Each structure stands twice: as structure tokens, then as C-alpha cells.
Amino acid sequence: MPDMLVPLLKLPPLPPIIESMRESGVVIRRALPHESGLIRAFVDQNFGTFWADEIAVGYANKPTSVFIALRGGHLVGFGAYECTHRGFFGPTGVAESERGRGVGKALLIACLWGLREMGYAYGVIGGAGPVDFYAKSVNATVIPDSVPGIYADPIRRGEQHPSQERRD
Question: How would you list the strands of the sheet with 122-125, edge to edge?
Fold first, then answer.
């Protein structure tokens, strides 16, 4: 999956998006540090340990660089930025029951505004899965030759290299 570049100076205004989400019953806000365990469990269960580990860095940032989406007080999505690399958006995820309702786009724009408020003129979406979604939502463009990007050479799960085997 390629990386994408986002012109942060051309983002849509955030307040109307937050208000529209609230009117539809979804609260979009920054995560608080004391919520990190609950959010980690949600991310781990729905999107995997790698993403849960990745957003953990966001709680050390002040303010936190993790946004959440709540419906009726229940976590239904998250978005993070400035976690794996400076100026990067992601990861982000929305519960299947909430997809297609604008939650992902609202989280995306909230996070990108966070990058803009830090002084960045451009943001990077690392390993962008839904390229068309990002292009339509925030005018993101694919960065040429960006595959495999920062996620190259991952640790393999469930395998042990022969040099790591116990020799009793």
C-alpha cells in the first residue's frame, strides 16, 4: 500500500464536522490518558496488536494524538497521528457497525487538524489502504515509489528463526 500526501492548509473546517457527528449521535473527541486501557482493548480486539501498540505512543504526546468516536458512551472508532513517525496520520479504524456513516472521515479530519495545529503544512498517510477514500476526503495524493514505506520488514508472527531455537 502506498503512502499519501495531504495538503493540510486546505482541510475543511473541523467544527461543523464535529457538530454534524454529534447531531447523528457520535461524539468525536481527543482520548484522555486514563482511557488508554479501554481504547487499547478495543483496537487490539477489532484491528490487532500492531495498531494497539502503534497508538500507545500517542498518549505520551501533549495533548494526546489519539481521537476517539463514541456512540452512547461506547467506543466505535479511533484515529491517531504523530505516533510511528512525525507528521504521519494513522492508524485509524471504525467498528463495522458504524462504517459508511462518516465516522472515519470525521476522525481523519480531526487528526489531520491536529497535525496542522502542530505546524505541519503537509501530512503523510502511511500505508494508505483505501486510497480513493483519502483522495476524495482530503485531496490526498499517492507518493510515488512509497511502497513498502515505513512498514517494510515487519516482525513475523508465530515463527521462530532457527537461530532463536532453544538448544538444551
Answer: 26-30, 66-71, 74-81, 88-94, 122-125, 4-7, 141-142
CATH label, 4-149, candidates 3.60.21.10, 3.30.70.270, 3.40.630.30, 3.40.50.10320: 3.40.630.30
Q: At what angle do helices 131-138 and 103-117 cross, to 10 degrees?
A: 60
Which pLDDT tens digit goes with each residue over 92-104?
999 999 999 999 9
pTM equals 0.91
Is a pLDDT exceeding 50 seen at residue 168?
A: no
Q: Which residues of 88-99 are buried (b: 16+ CB within 10 A; e: fewer)?
A: bbbbbbbbeeee
DSSP three-state, residue 158: coil
